[in-house]
Structures are given as structure tokens and as C-alpha cells.
TrEMBL record:
Ranges of residues in domain Strictosidine synthase conserved region: 157-244
Subcellular location: Vacuole
GO cellular component: endomembrane system; vacuole
Keywords, comma-separated and alphabetical: Glycoprotein, Signal, Vacuole
Protein name: Protein STRICTOSIDINE SYNTHASE-LIKE 10
Length: 373
């Protein structure tokens, strides 16, 4: 066997080890276990309901999916309807139903969603098109901020809205990598991510934090005095004080955090894509191994291989409800015997149920809590 083939095989084995798997998992999350009953809401054609949002009337949820559409759940009809899209009208036939990451830069990929409930505007963090807005009655999202200081956003991701001022806090996960390269962003140790604030009155974008390692979900406190920010690569939750800019680490998690959402019972729900096993943690701490994985991954299609491994591992859903200080109040680790809802991206608690998103699955989950506090 040639040296080149041996190198490729070694790289493949290493990639399997450092992909988001549950091999050599870290210890279980502490906290009270959540008990409930899971219901799945299948999507129409596309996949990946990454984030959810409810409007001021309580209708929804609304969610963005892989083909650039934003869908709305109609409980009375037990199905999804088209609400809007982030792509332009002439691309409807090209994009609808797409699950192909290679089309994302054309069709868009809506990630974080949140309503300005006073005005009825739905803000969308699209991974490729930047910060966008869908006004009441609009069928297509309009860009409101595509970059700052003349430089386009590369990977717009999570967002939350200060209902008092209307300001939108959002993340740009990397200056180097786009969403379809997210595995490379993590393996490379990229630390070019930013937290920003969009002033809806002036249209100004202010950079609040730089040098972050894959900043992802963001959630404001009830009085907007601080926010919690997920840093995916480091598996940390950061606390940023908005009035007197100050940053601290409040939690080190056992998995890769995605979106963060405030809970009506207090604290914040943090969804985790998968566990950060000890083997994964070690591999990502070795600079030469990171470089090797990126080199080999460029030949083997790192993103496709990682997704394949994820699909076979069938990891359980993982989320925690944290206090403002980062203490684990409650833990969600799987849905009992149900193994079909996994690799979750967001947990939105509403009326005794957890609405559970996933960037990979072809459905949204609703977990009806047996005994919500």
C-alpha cells in the first residue's frame, strides 16, 4: 500500500475519532432530569429546523430550513405552511426542497430567528446573507446588515432582540469559514468570531467582542443587562454585561453548545449538538493534529465524512437549563426510548413544552414536560 494511501487512511481514522461522536464521552451532566413525552413535526421537503420563534400573538413556531425557506407551524391544520424565504423570487424553483450544502450560498441558510414583538418584524440570522428582516405581510426577507466596516459577514449565526430598544445582538461565527465548513472551523481552532449589536433605528452595526472561538447562540436576560453567549469550539458559555462591557466564563459544558434561549421558569436553555468526549478534547488540543486533519479533510470532504459519522453514531439529545451564574438547574439527555431526535440546536420552552430544533433532522420536536416547575 502506498504512503499516500496510508496517510489518507490514518487521516480518515483520526477524523472518525474527532468528529462529534460519543466515544469516550465526558461524565453525564449534573442536575435534575427532565421527563416528558416527545412528538415529532415532520417538515415538507427540507431539513434542519435550526431555530424557532413565536410571534406576538403566540402563533407558530416559525423556523428556518435547509432550502432557505421560513416555515410556520399551524396547529389547527397539523402542518407547516410557507411564511417567507431568504432567497430572491426567481430562485424558488431552484431552491425549494434543497438539502445540498453546496447550494447554501445561493439559496441562503436561515439560522437564528427572533421576533421584534412590538413591530411584528421577524429577524433572521442567515449564514450567508447576513442579518435579515421579514416584515408583517412580506414574502421575502430583506437584508438589513450584510457586513461591517466594508467587510461582509462570513457566517451569521445566532441572535436575540432587546425588546426595549429594538437592538439586535447577533454573532458572526468566523471571518474565515462559512457554515458548510463548520467542522473545519472547529478543528482549525479558528478564533475570528464576533459578537455584534445592530441598532434598528440607525442601521449601525457595533462590534462588541472579537477573537471568539465559534460564537453561536446568544440570549439576553429579561432586563437586557447581560447576555449569555455559546462558544462552540471551547464548549463554554460566556456572560457579557451590556451596559458596563464586561466578559466572564460562567459554564464549561460537556458538549458543543449551539443556541441559547431564556426559560420562562428562570435561567437559560442551552442545546448541545453532541458531547465533547475526552478523545475529541485531546485531539483538538494538539495543533499539529488539527493541521493534519484539515489537510486530509480537504481531500476526503471533511464535512460529508463528519455528517456520515454523526448519522451512524445516533447520539442522544443533550441540553441543560443553566442559572444566570452558570449552575445546571435541569438536564435533558435523550428522550427515553426515542432515538430519532438528536443533534439538537435549540430548546425553546413555552406553555409546559420544549420545542426542540436540530440542524440535521427532517422534523421539529415537541417535548411535553410531565412536571414543569
Amino acid at each position: 500500500m502506498s504512503t499516500a494511501k496510508l496517510v489518507l487512511i490514518a487521516g480518515a481514522v483520526a477524523l472518525l475519532s474527532v468528529s462529534f461522536s460519543y466515544l469516550n464521552s465526558s461524565p453525564s451532566t449534573a442536575g435534575n432530569d427532565v421527563g416528558g413525552e416527545l412528538r415529532l413535526l415532520p417538515l415538507d421537503g427540507a431539513v434542519g429546523p435550526e431555530s424557532v420563534a413565536f410571534d406576538a400573538s403566540g402563533e407558530g413556531p416559525y423556523t428556518g430550513v435547509s432550502d432557505g425557506r421560513i416555515l410556520k407551524w399551524k396547529e389547527d391544520e397539523q402542518g407547516w405552511i410557507h411564511h417567507a424565504s431568504v432567497y430572491s423570487p426567481e430562485l424558488a424553483n431552484t431552491c425549494k426542497g434543497s438539502r445540498d450544502p453546496k447550494k447554501e450560498h445561493v439559496c441562503g441558510r436561515p439560522l437564528g430567528l427572533q421576533f421584534n414583538k412590538k413591530k411584528g418584524d421577524l429577524y433572521v440570522a442567515d449564514a450567508y446573507f447576513g442579518l435579515m428582516k421579514v416584515g408583517p405581510g412580506d414574502e421575502f426577507a430583506a437584508p438589513v446588515a450584510a457586513g461591517t466596516h466594508g467587510v461582509p459577514f462570513r457566517f451569521t449565526n445566532g441572535l436575540d432582540i432587546d425588546e426595549g430598544s429594538g437592538a439586535v445582538y447577533f454573532t458572526d461565527s468566523s471571518k474565515r469559514f462559512q457554515r458548510r465548513e463548520f467542522t473545519s472551523a472547529i478543528i482549525s481552532g479558528d478564533a475570528t468570531g464576533r459578537l455584534m449589536r445592530f441598532d434598528a433605528d440607525t442601521g449601525e452595526v457595533q462590534v462588541l467582542l472579537e477573537g471568539l472561538s465559534f460564537p453561536n447562540g446568544v440570549a439576553l436576560s429579561g432586563d437586557a443587562s447581560f447576555l449569555l453567549l455559546a462558544e462552540t469550539t471551547t464548549c463554554r458559555i460566556l456572560k457579557y454585561w451590556t451596559q458596563t462591557p464586561r466578559l466572564e466564563v460562567v459554564a464549561q459544558l460537556p458538549g458543543f453548545p449551539d443556541n441559547v434561549r431564556r426559560s420562562p421558569r428562570g435561567g437559560f436553555w442551552v442545546a448541545m449538538h453532541s458531547r465533547n468526549g475526552r478523545l475529541v478534547e485531546w485531539a483538538l488540543s494538539v495543533p499539529w493534529l488539527r493541521r493534519f486533519l484539515l489537510l486530509v479533510g480537504s481531500r476526503l470532504n471533511l464535512q460529508k465524512l463528519s455528517s456520515s459519522v454523526l448519522g451512524r453514531r445516533r447520539g442522544a439529545a443533550l441540553a441543560v437549563r443553566l442559572s444566570e451564574e452558570g449552575e445546571v438547574l435541569e438536564a435533558l439527555e435523550g428522550f427515553g426510548e426515542r432515538k430519532d431526535m438528536r443533534f439538537i440546536s435549540e430548546v425553546e420552552e413555552r406553555n409546559g413544552s420544549l420545542w426542540v430544533g436540530s440542524v440535521l433532522m427532517p422534523f421539529l420536536g415537541v417535548y411535553h414536560l410531565h412536571h414543569p416547575d
